[in-house]
């Protein structure tokens, strides 16, 4: 048995030596794809979120011919497979710069041929234009209008939230929209009292980013039925139906959608019950105003922080005029309006600190209970090195007194010193008043449905009107349009639900 084992070992060793001595002749058969080269007309393609982008490669086949049918195809956007068609027809959901990869796969061999990587840049259609909050079938929803400057036409979007969130309900009882930037990211705030309550969306992708009630340090307040939210560069405030004011302070380098609200309402001497928070060009001013019904007075909000390390909010009473320029005898002291009833207030000509201080012109409409005459009282506020000064300006009869009612909506056209307001028992008429001249009000337009929302463009040259029947109309309010020397109506969108609010996006914010 020992000899047999030795013999087998010798034979195996000889076989291994023979194998090791075989010569490599280098004659391999490599599997190759059919010859094709792939090029694109550009290394960068531009598209728009939620709109179709089409890309057709330039293919050159070998001498034996061929076609796209001889290959399978794969398109990748930022690493995600998005199409298996020969040409790309793609509807992107996220704005930004994306790596675009295309490969052809030879059906007979499975070998891939890659095109050079290219870039797909997707712009947001919601970045600029008019954002619309409306109510349809008891639910809140979002629409949008933008102007296509290349094709000189308006493009509309509707049911944006439910489309973006697989049919999820946005909420109910819609109130207001706000739009603000934070560390380069814009947020669209939806103020509503039902469903999710107030929420924030990424303003470019329109994806939900934050539910406000989940963002309070120490837990949400008992009453989060908001009537308004003020969005300013370094701080925010939320006003609820009880007139309480909750703050949100920003650090110098905040992470978007991460800064918490404080669940303890702000306090002031004599207390306060806020029923009106003025809409402001908050990117242009660090000062705004609110009406305190509890004490029948106007309060100012100072956001001019004493340092650059974080947010700052100071709510205080209107300072007294300088001794050299006191309240004229016919003026009402805005710190104690006594038997005068506050009707409406708005800021005009809001300017940041460009060396002359922070300045705002304010207008307050007031009347005595039971009387029809409304008086306009104006003032100027200025902050120089955080020292606030107040200057009374003028007081006169508001010539639209006989037209307004308790449901009238007002719009401060900030850079033209005009007030637009709805009128009539059904508020289907729109008038405007020139603050400077104080002349009789003028009819701007009559509508077939009640006016429920008014908004102006940042340059005060356009205005958007929302109606109860779901119509949004864009108007020119340039001097030529107001004098009848140019067309007023620019565009009309129909078929939405009752319009709750409209804002411009990408500007000074409100």
UniProtKB/TrEMBL annotation:
Pfam families: PKD_2. The keyword Signal applies. Keywords: Signal. InterPro entries: PKD-like, WD40/YVTN_repeat-like_dom_sf, WD40_repeat_dom_sf. Transmembrane segments: none annotated. Residues 1-23 form the signal peptide. It comes from the Bacteria. SUPFAM superfamilies: WD40 repeat-like (SSF50978). The keyword Signal applies. This is PKD family protein. The lineage of its organism: Bacteria, Pseudomonadati, Bacteroidota, Sphingobacteriia, Sphingobacteriales.
């Amino acid at each position: 048995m020992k000899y047999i084992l030795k013999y087998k070992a010798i034979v195996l060793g000889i076989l291994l030596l023979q194998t090791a001595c075989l010569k490599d002749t280098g004659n391999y058969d490599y599997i190759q794809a059919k010859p094709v080269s792939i090029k694109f007309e550009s290394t960068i393609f531009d598209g728009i979120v939620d709109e179709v982008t089409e890309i057709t490669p330039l293919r050159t086949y070998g001498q034996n011919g061929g076609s796209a049918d001889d290959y399978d195809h794969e398109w990748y956007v930022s690493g995600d497979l998005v199409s298996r068609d020969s040409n790309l027809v793609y509807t992107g959901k996220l704005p930004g710069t994306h790596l675009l990869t295309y490969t052809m796969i030879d059906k007979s061999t499975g070998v891939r041929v890659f095109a050079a990587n290219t870039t797909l840049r997707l712009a947001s259609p919601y970045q600029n234009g008019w954002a619309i909050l409306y109510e349809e079938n008891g639910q809140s929803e979002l629409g949008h209008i933008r102007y296509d400057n290349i094709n000189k036409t308006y493009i509309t979007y509707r049911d944006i939230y439910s489309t973006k969130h697989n049919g999820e309900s946005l909420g109910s009882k819609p109130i207001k929209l706000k739009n603000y930037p934070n560390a380069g990211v814009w947020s669209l705030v939806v103020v509503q009292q039902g469903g999710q309550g107030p929420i924030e969306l990424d303003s470019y992708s329109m994806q939900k980013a934050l539910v406000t009630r989940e963002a309070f340090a120490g837990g949400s307040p008992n009453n989060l039925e908001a009537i308004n939210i003020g969005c300013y560069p370094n701080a925010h405030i939320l006003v609820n139906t009880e007139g309480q004011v909750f703050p949100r302070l920003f650090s110098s380098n905040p992470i978007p959608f991460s800064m918490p609200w404080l669940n303890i309402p702000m306090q002031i001497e004599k207390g306060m019950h806020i029923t009106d928070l003025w809409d402001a060009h908050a990117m242009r001013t660090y000062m705004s105003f609110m009406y305190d019904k509890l004490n029948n007075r106007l309060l100012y909000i100072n956001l001019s922080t004493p340092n650059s390390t974080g947010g700052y909010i100071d709510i205080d009473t209107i300072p007294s005029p300088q001794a050299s320029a006191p309240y004229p005898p016919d003026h009402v002291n805005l710190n104690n309006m006594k038997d005068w009833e506050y009707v409406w207030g708005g800021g005009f000509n809001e300017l940041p600190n460009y060396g002359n201080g922070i300045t705002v012109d304010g207008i307050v409409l007031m009347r005595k209970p039971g009387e029809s005459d409304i008086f306009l009282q104006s003032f100027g506020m200025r902050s120089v090195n955080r020292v606030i000064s107040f200057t009374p300006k003028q007081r006169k009869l508001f010539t639209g007194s006989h037209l307004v009612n308790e449901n009238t909506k007002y719009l401060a056209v900030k850079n033209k010193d005009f007030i637009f307001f709805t009128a009539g028992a059904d508020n289907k008429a729109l008038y405007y008043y020139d603050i400077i001249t104080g002349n009789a009000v003028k009819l701007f337009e009559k509508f077939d449905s009640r006016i429920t929302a008014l908004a102006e463009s940042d340059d005060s040259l356009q205005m958007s009107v929302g109606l109860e029947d779901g119509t949004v109309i864009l108007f020119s309010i340039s001097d030529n349009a107001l004098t009848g020397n140019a067309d007023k109506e620019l565009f009309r969108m129909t078929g939405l639900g009752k319009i709750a609010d409209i804002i411009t996006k990408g500007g000074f914010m409100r």
